[in-house]
Structures are given as C-alpha cells and as structure tokens.
Amino acid sequence: MRNLPGRVARFATLALGATLLSAHVGSPDAVFEGRAGPYGVRVIVKAPPVIPARAEVIVRVTEGRGVTRVVAAPYIWNGGDAGAPPPDALARVAGDSSLWSGQLWIMAPTSYSIRVTVAGAAGEGTAAVPFAALPTRVLGMDRGLALGLAAFGALLVAGFVTLVGVASSEATLEPGVAVDASRRRRGWIARGAAAGIVTALLVLGRLWWGAEEAAYARNVYAPTRALVSVGAEGGARRLALAIDTATLHRRRASPLIPDHGRMMHLFAIREDLGAMAHLHPAMRDSLHFAGALPDLPPGRYRVFADVVRETGYAETLVGAFAHDGGGPATPVADRDDATFTGAPTGATVRFADGSTLTRTGAATPLRAGAEATLAFVLRDATGAERPVEPYLGMAAHAVVVRDAFDVFVHLHPVGTASMAAQRALLERTAADTARGALARRLAADTLHAGHGMDAERLPGRFAFPYAFPKAGRYRVWVQFRIDGAVRTAAFEVRVA
Amino acid sequence: MSTTLEPGLAPAPAATSATVAPTRADVATSTAYIATVLASAAGIVIGLLWDISWHMTVGRDTFWSPPHMLEYASGLAAGLSSGYVVLRTTFAGSPGDRAASVRFWGFRGPLGAWITIWGTFAMLLSAPFDDWWHAAYGLDVKIVSPPHMVLLLGMLGILVGAICLTVSAQNRAQGARQRTRDAWMYAASGGILCFILACATLEYSWPNEQHAPLYYQVWGAVFPVVLVAYASAGRLRWPATAAALVYMGLWLAMGIALRLVPAEPLLAPIYNPRTYMWPPYFPVWLVVPALGVDLVLQRTRGRDAWLVALALGVTFVALHAAAQWPWSAFMLTPAARVPVLNGGEFPYSTRIGPWIGEFWGPRSATNGIGTPPVGVELARGLAIAMGLAALSSRLGLAWGRWMAQVRR
User: Fold this and answer.
1) What pLDDT digit, counting tens, does each position of A274-307 carry?
2) In principle, which of A46, A322, A400, B183 could form an S-S bond with B235, CB 3.0–4.6 Å?
3) Which of A68, A74, A71, A128 is CA-nearest to residue A101?
4) Which residue in A321, A256, A304 sits closest to A283, CA to CA?
5) From CA B138, how far away is CA A52, in angstroms rounded?
6) Which residue on chain B is closest to A173 by alpha carbon?
7) What is the number of other CB atoms lying within 10 angstroms of the CB of residue B226?
C-alpha cells in the first residue's frame, strides 16, 4: 500500500487496502483493515454458503469520531457503477458505538467489490473490499424436516385422491340423496386414475428436483487442483506446477494478473507443519509455472498457490508433492523466496542476531467466526522496537494453516488481502470488455514497478486482522524483511 | 338448464331417500361463507399479480413482503372458515347442511370446503419447503421451482374450492334474487380463474407478442376451457362474458392502483430505473371472444360436442385476434404510455431500446427478438391456435357438464 503505483493512488480516497477472496481454502469471509477516507475501518464480509443470498457486513470504525451513517453496496465486477443497487444503510450494533452491521443481497456467484461508505463529522469516505461470492455447499435435508415434509406431502396426495373420488360420485347428487353402488364404483375408478396421475407428477417432480440440484452443484466452489512435480534441471532442483484443467471452473477462469509483482505466490507446507517455503515460480503459459525449489527437509508437502484473475477473483490452487531430500543443492536464489524449518517456540521467537518477534495480546482467547487480531512487535537485541523493510510491498505477511489443512489463508496487515484483486475491480473501465485487456494493462504496469524501495522503513509493530473460520489448532508463519533478508517466525494459535 | 339430472347419468334413488333442501340459514351453504372463500381466492390472485409487480420493480423478495402476506392471509382465511364449516357440519350440522355435504375421511362438508382446505394445506406445506429450498440453493432467481409449484397448486386448490362452492350454490339456488346473486358469484369465480391464468401466461402476453402466433396458441390452449365451461354451466344469460368482464375489471383496477405506488429497484443490475410499481398493461379484451363463446353455445345446443368444440375454437381465436391485433398495435405507440393503458412498462432489469415499440417474433440466438411471421406461416400458426382452442373447448364442455351437476 505504501508503494502504490500512480494509477492506484488516485483511488486513494476510495479505497486503501484489499481483502482476500473467498477462494482461499476453507476461509470464505473477507476481512479488511484500512481507510474509508478520513476514517479507519475494519470490514468483515461474511460469505453466505449459498448464492444468491444475503451476506452480512460488519463494519468497525477504528478511527474517526462522530460517524453518523455507514452504508454498503455490492458492485459486480463487470457491472460498472451504474449496475450497482442503491446502498443499504448499516445499523449501529447495540452496546458498541463503533460497530455497524447489515445485510447485502448478493445475487450472482462471481466477483464483487463491496463498497463501504462512512459519513460523519470528518466528511465522507469509501473503502472497496474485494469479495468472491461463491456457493460452498449443497445443503442436505435433515431427517426431521424430511419426514415432516414427506408426511405432509403424503396427506396431500391421499387428500387429492379422495377429493377426485368424492367429486365424481357424491358431489353431483342432489342434497340428501345417498350414494348408490354404481356411483361408488365410479368414485373408486376416479380415485385410481387420480393416484396414477399423482404418481406420474411426483416422478416428474423428483426428476426436476434432481436436475435443479445438479445444476446448482456445478456451481459449488471446489478448489482448482495443481499438479506439482519436483526434478532437477541445470544443476538446480526445480518445482513445476501445472493447473489441472479438469478441475478448473470455466466460468471463473480468466487471465491472471500479477499480485505484488508476482504471478503466483506458492506456499509449500510439510504435512507435519515442520517446514514451509514461500516461493514465486514464473508463469510459462496460462497453465504452467516453474521455479527453483530451495533445500527443504524431506517429506510430503501440501501446496497452496495464490493467483489473481482479472475479474478480481483471487484463487488458491491446491496440490501436493513428495520430496525425498535429494537432488542438487539449491540455495534460495530469489530475494523474495524464503524457507523455514522448525517448530513454534512460544509467544516470542528469538533470531540469531538477538532480535525477537513477540505476539502481543496472545492471552486474549480467540473464538471461531469472531473478529480477531494477530498482533506482533519486532525488537532488536537491546529490546528497542525495530523497523522492517517492505517485503512484497507490505510490512509483513502471515501464512495461516489449520492443522488438518482444511483452512489456508495468506494474510496482510490490510486483512485477507489481494491488492491486485482490488486494483482489478477498481480500474476496470468500459474499454476492458475484451478478455485479457485489463490483465495486460495491469501486468505492464506492475511488473516494472515496485523495485528499489528497500530504503523505506516500516514500523516493526504490525497486526493482521482476521476471523478464524473454525475452532482448532492453527500454525501461523509470520514473514518480514530486515537487513535485506526475509525472516520467518512460527507460532501456534488455538481457536475455541 | 334444469335442476334435474341429465339423461345418461345413473338415476339417483331419490324416491327411497328423504331429501332435505338446504336453506341460506345453514352455515355450510350461507352466502357469507361462500363470499369469504371467493374473496380469499380474489385476495390470492391479487397478491400474485402484486408479487409479480414486486419482482419487476423492487426485486428483493422475502417471506414477509406485503404481496406474500396478502396471499398467506387470504389462504388462511379460506382454510380456517372452511375448517370451521366442516367441523360444524360434522358435529353440529343442521339437516340442510348435512344433506348438502360430502363424506371425507369420516367428516362431512361441502366439496368446495374440502378442496379449499386441501389448498390451504398445500400452501402451508410449501412454506417450510420453500424456506429450505432457499437455504439449499439460494434466493429465488426463477419463479418456477418445485416449492413454488406446490404453492401454486395450493392457490389453485383454494380457487377451485371457491368455484365448487359457488357453482353448487348456483345449481341449488331458488327464487329470482338468490339465483341472480349466486350466478354472479359463480361468474366472479370464473373471472378470478381467468385472472390467475393471465398471470401464468404473462410472459407470452406482452402487447409486443400479440402479432405472433405463439400468443394466440397459448391463449387458445388456456382460456377456452374456462370460458366454455362457464358458458355451459352458468345460469346467467351471458356467463362467459360476465366472467371475462370480471377478469378485465380486476386486472384494470390492479393496473391503475399499482401505478400509483412509488417504488424503486433494490437489486442490481438496474437497467431501467423504475420510480413506481410495474403496472400490468391494459387487460386483454377477453370479453370479445367470451361473447362469441356464449353466442355459439346458445345456438348449438344438442349438437355433437366435437363439432361444437370446433366452432368454439375457431370463433375464440378469430374474435380474439380481431380484438387484440389492432389493440396491441395501439398499445405499442407512445400514446398508450399513459396511466390506465400502461403501455411500455418494463421491469427494472430490462435494457430499454427501440425494440420496446416493436412487435417480437420467435426468439433465436441469431435473430434476437426477431419479427413476427407473416403470410402462410402466420396462417398456419393461427390454424394451430384454432386447433388448440377447439381441444380446449372440448375439455371445457366436459368440465362444464360436470359443474352443471355439482349440488354439494
């Protein structure tokens, strides 16, 4: 954010920061920390499990007083400003004067920018939060409801059959006249015919229901798979990644755009959580990536590879590879790549040069689904707070994995953010209708920017806003740069 | 139509049973009860068109939207009053009430009350089903879904219940005043039935579609069955005409009223920013073919049913086209874009263009909205419409024959 290229800078009042899209594994909510003009805000967009649905938006005003009104509206990625609905007013949450909440109608399973506007004594400002609205499940019907509906339905069917019988026998008799045998017989024939018709209708209804469910299921989010292989080439160990097109959702696929100057941010995590690598393989074509695999201890590794598409859809590809520890020795060559081996050592991690990274506020319990802050402070050997150098355009990065590997997210101090997604959503113009036009423009812009910034220093006190999606044990690796080198520290976080 | 059974039916053993004539003092056959169910049926169909307008204007749909509340309240009014009538007839019914009722699972009540109760239960069942459906597959994007079909069946049940109650009252009515009033209540139920069918065929019935054969085929298939049945079972001199007038009046009133209600779209994307509720366009001149149906039936008594149906089908389509062809051309002109007529009114999600003032043909990927066929193709399309209308009329004759006999 501090190194925004000029084109983004003009949106500075509209938005500063961005969030992760729901495609991050098992972590569909968007969490955003940034500015809405003169106000500091933290926005959480709770992803509904089905689309279309209403999404809950929670806004905490973290800075700025006298806020009188907070509104929000969903902007579909290709809808332009005119395509947005009038914003919905959020209501102040009782008992917390800085918290606002409300619901937005999200009608399409695609990429949105949720625009939150805060108005008050200091004026008005807007933040744009990228949000991928993706259905994540097909709901089963619980037994009680199913039995209840079936019983009720059976009653209706029996009632219908009886009605047809009565209508064709007793109903046309003069009042007071009793039903005779021939009419009774006619009534039973009519009942039989009605039962046949109802059975046929129920069969057709079942087929229809099945077709509707199948159509819905095709839209349910499932991570795109990556086929990852390790080999040697030119005296170095290489990692190659191919996107498995069989798992690529065609309607969600669009040209990739660089994020922090890289087309892919790949995280390889050993299954015992004892080792991880943060790598940036180069894009060969739209499906293939390759780069050096630095020395790592042997074992089975899970791969989470973040890419961003020009629709503003940030996606995590998932894969795995086995590494036998062999192959040519390959030191970390890319200055933004980093590896780490080891276990957490408590709330404070000590580095070789005596610097320490401490997780502050670790005593505060974390609860699933609730707003959470992972805060850290970096100190030098004397105990003084120590500044950091920008790493991939940010003060720090955090990689969060639940021990069962069902949750993965890559956090920034601005939240679960992809800067690139936000740029793509904000910079799309009517001229970008042609597929790939925006991707080329953004690539030309960012791949050549963002270097020579090492002189800059950022505070060594940083925090990551997040909402853990479920309870359990999480491993968090915090990465930052000092003295030109990337440092990694591991922490364990428990969520109740 | 006489009150005796028609020849060909098994004769009722009237001589051996003590018959009791129900009177208006009885609960189950009282005008108040029948009018309650009839008004509930009207409330349901009004709620339905209001709901369609809501979807075209506001977009956001919740269980608690005002049109839904009208529909459910009407359904409950019909169901509860019918439930009361059934319990009362079964456990404390007067001899007249009991005589004019049918047996259903050990209970007694008028046929129409049972159908109404069935409809209310179907509506009630659809609510949790629809709620689950939204939780499972998302909020409504389409109108036609399995739970909505259950809801629609329930609404139709209440409507058919109202029809049975009014027709049996008409068929039992004695004295000139009662006969006239009951015959009009029955005609009103026919108008309400036409109204719900007009809602169901709305998608094919924009004025822009009224120069294409598909429109005449859809209306030819759907409406003659109702008009013919009413024409043959109604005791008014012009029963189908009366039913068509009720439909037109109700529809016109909705078109006038909805236009007066300010509203704005709340769902994106908004291509046609509306400032008031979408009002239905001026009703189709159904009274013209209905008059023809009444006339044909008056002049063909005792003829072969299939020949009569053919005459009815040809008459219906010919008169319908004679009325709607020039009228729809007028509806596309700027002069019709005024209150009451409501020409050129489209949903918020429509991209307005010059095509809103043109006639549409069959849609295709290459042709867009297309242009209506002319010449031989048009003649063939209208001939198909007449064939469908004849089949529909034949069904109407059969249904009308049954309705003329309903006594309970």
Assistant:
1) 999 999 999 999 899 999 999 999 999 999 999 9
2) B183
3) A71
4) A256
5) 5
6) B407
7) 27
Q: In which residue are the tokens 């049109």 written?
A: B67
Distance CA A391, CA A397 (A): 8
Instruction: Look at residue A431 and tell me whether its pLDDT is greater than 90.
Output: no
In this structure, are residues A29 and A81 in contact, taking their beta carbons and an 8 Å threshold?
no
* Closest-approach residue (CA) in chain B for A84: B268
Nearest 5°: the CA angle B242, B337, B351 is: 115
The residue among B166, B155, B73 whose CA lies nearest residue B111 is B166
A59: nearest Cα among A48, A71, A73, A47:
A71
Contact B105 A162 (CB under 8 A): yes
Report how far residue B65's alpha carbon sits from residue B52's, in angstroms, rounded to the nearest whole number.
12
DSSP class of residue B124 equals H
B191-235: pLDDT as tens digits: 999 999 999 999 899 999 999 999 999 999 999 999 999 999 999
Given a contact cutoff of 8 angstroms between Cβ atoms, the answer to whether A138 and A220 are in contact is yes
8 Å CB contact between A424 and A310 = yes
Nearest-CA distance from A159 to chain B in Å? 7
Closest CA to A136 of A19, A254, A23: A23
A381 Cβ under 8 Å from any chain B Cβ: no
User: Using CA atoms in the order B276, B277, B281, B286, what is the torsion angle rounded to 10 degrees?
Assistant: -150
Reply yes or no: is the peptide bond before residue B269 cis, omega within 30 of 0.
yes
Taking an 8 Å cut-off on Cβ atoms, the answer to whether B267 and A180 are in contact is no
Q: pLDDT digit string (tens) for A328-359? A: 888 888 899 999 999 999 999 999 999 999 99
Q: Do B267 and A107 touch (CB under 8 A)?
A: yes
DSSP A85-103: PPPEEPEEPTT-TTEEEEE
Judge whether A74 is closer than 8 Å to chain B, CB to CB: yes
The partner residue sitting opposite B118, judged by closest CB among A135, A156, A178, is: A156
What ranges make up the beta strands (E) of A324-453?
338-341, 348-350, 356-360, 371-379, 397-402, 408-411
Are B104 and B85 a contacting pair, CB within 8 Å? no
The confidence band for A176, taking pLDDT boundaries of 50, 70 and 90, is confident
User: What's residue B98's pLDDT?
Assistant: 86
Which residues in chain A are closer than 8 Å to B18, comparing Cβ atoms? Answer: 176
Centroid of chain to Cα B235: 19
B388 near B219, Cβ under 8 Å? no
DSSP A360-373: ETTTS-B-TTSEEE
* Number of A–B residue contacts, CB under 8 Å: 150
Q: Which helix (H) or strand (E) holds A420?
A: helix A419-427
Q: How far apart are CA B403 and CA A493, in angstroms?
A: 74
Query: A169 — phi, psi (to 5°)?
Result: -125, -75
Contact call for residues A407 and A469 (beta carbons, < 8 A): yes
Closest CA to B79 of B158, B156, B26: B158
How high is the ipTM of this complex? 0.85
Task: Identify the H or E element spanning A16.
Answer: none
